[in-house]
TrEMBL record:
The lineage of its organism: Bacteria, Pseudomonadati, Bacteroidota, Flavobacteriia, Flavobacteriales. This is DUF418 domain-containing protein. The chain crosses the membrane at residues 21-39, 59-82, 103-136, 142-160, 207-228, 248-269, 281-304, 324-343, 355-373. It comes from Leeuwenhoekiella aestuarii. The keyword Transmembrane applies. Residues 228-391 form the DUF418 domain.
Length: 398
């Protein structure tokens, strides 16, 4: 029985374009966090009042924040479902394969956190992937219902805080002695080991955000991806995109109206100061942001299948084929740009400058990925991951 992985020539190009697009958006968001950590970000950004910087921050809020993480999560769930169903159809073992694949992805995530950047999501995806066997056996109705509940439930913070109190865990104390100036000093002048220690503290401090915000959204989109994969929507994607044209445009219009109202009006209302109202307003904003991310996928699909502009999207597929490598590479570039082991640019750039740098570096990634894929079948980390998963050396040269 063959244990070789799927050959590159069987890939669905539009999925690689989706992945490349997600990697671009994630980098645009992550570079802002790499440049100024959450603890000091609002104070740092508040000093920039030039039109270009204010416009940049509005662009990020409207078109990037909370749009691309859901896309990445959906594509991950879709990919897992496609792999599981393919192996099932070919009567190949699944449990061992999937367990190894998720274990090594988790390991990649942990190494990413320890040695490069604390904002990793790979370990979270790996943990979700371990439960694929349970979720994929559920009925379509249950999968969609769970996805909607996970996305729409507004009170994760309350239950998470209660849980932390029960186990006497206080994540915020880990950075209680660190202000923005001290963090800046460690990142720009400290040793690599001091930076490593800071990354651990940042990760633990950000656990409420990881578990109370990112994890529910990730699981919701993971389930949606499983649903799409389980029902083989990819095999009829062109027709599916055409069929949902009207509802997706209506949803995009409604959710974008709310997003503009939230950013420009609702946060200034007196009722926003009430915790319950604020929680509900923010949850609606998150739902609208996720809807915007799904609209991006529909729009890319429409351009790909129903317009002559495919060439505009083509460069994204090179990054998408090497999504894991490029994702980790972006974090490494951030380490070099902002920390003491590189150019020490932490909290020295304007918002518009960080955006421009992200776009330039992504273009470089497109070029490097295209050159690499002329000679090799897989990205370097993708190849390592495959070899570990399949327990054998897989040929990498074209």
């Amino acid at each position: 029985m063959s244990t070789l992985p799927t050959k590159p020539n069987t890939r669905i190009e539009v999925l690689d374009i989706y992945r490349g697009f997600a990697v671009l958006g994630i980098f645009v968001v992550n570079i802002v966090i790499m440049h100024s950590t959450f603890i000091n970000q609002d104070a740092y950004l508040a000093q920039f009042t030039a039109p270009a910087d204010l416009i940049t921050q509005k662009v990020l809020q409207l078109f990037f924040y909370t749009k691309f993480f859901p896309i990445f999560s959906l594509l991950f769930g879709l990919g897992i479902a496609m792999q599981v169903l393919k192996r099932k159809n070919e009567h190949k073992p699944i449990k061992g394969f999937l367990s190894r694949r998720m274990f090594f992805l988790f390991l990649f995530g942990v190494l990413h956190i320890v040695f490069i950047w604390s904002g990793d999501v790979l370990h979270l995806y790996a943990l979700l992937g371990f439960f694929t066997f349970i979720f994929i056996k559920l009925s379509n109705k249950i999968i969609i219902t769970l996805a909607l509940i996970l996305l729409c439930f507004p009170f994760y913070d309350f239950f998470l805080e209660s849980f932390f109190n029960t186990i006497h865990f206080e994540p915020y104390v880990y950075l209680s002695d660190y202000n923005g100036a001290k963090i800046n000093d460690i990142i720009t002048t400290g040793t690599y080991l001091e930076g490593l220690h800071l990354r651990f503290l940042e990760y633990v401090t950000n656990l409420p955000m990881l578990l109370g915000f990112l994890a529910p959204v990730a699981l919701s989109m993971f389930l949606l991806g499983l649903f799409l994969g389980k029902n083989k929507i990819v095999n009829k994607l062109e027709l599916f995109i055409f069929k949902i044209k009207t509802p997706i445009l209506v949803v995009a219009l409604i959710t974008n109206l709310y997003r503009v109202l939230f950013l420009e009006i609702l946060t200034d209302l007196d009722c926003y100061k009430t915790e319950l109202i604020r929680t509900l307003f923010i949850k609606l904003m998150v739902i609208c942001d996720v809807a915007m991310g799904l609209f991006y996928l529909w729009l890319i699909g429409w351009i790909w299948y129903y317009t002559p502009w495919q060439k505009v999207l083509n460069p994204l597929k090179y990054v998408g084929r090497m999504a894991l490598t490029n994702y980790i590479l972006q974090s490494f570039l951030g380490l070099i740009l902002f920390s003491s082991i590189g150019f020490k640019l932490y909290e020295t750039l304007k918002p518009v400058e960080t955006l421009i740098i992200a776009l330039i570096l992504f273009c470089v990634q497109v070029i490097l990925s295209k050159i690499w894929l002329k000679h090799f079948k897989y990205g370097p980390l993708e190849w390592i991951w495959r070899c570990l998963t399949y327990k054998r050396l897989i040929p990498i040269s074209n």
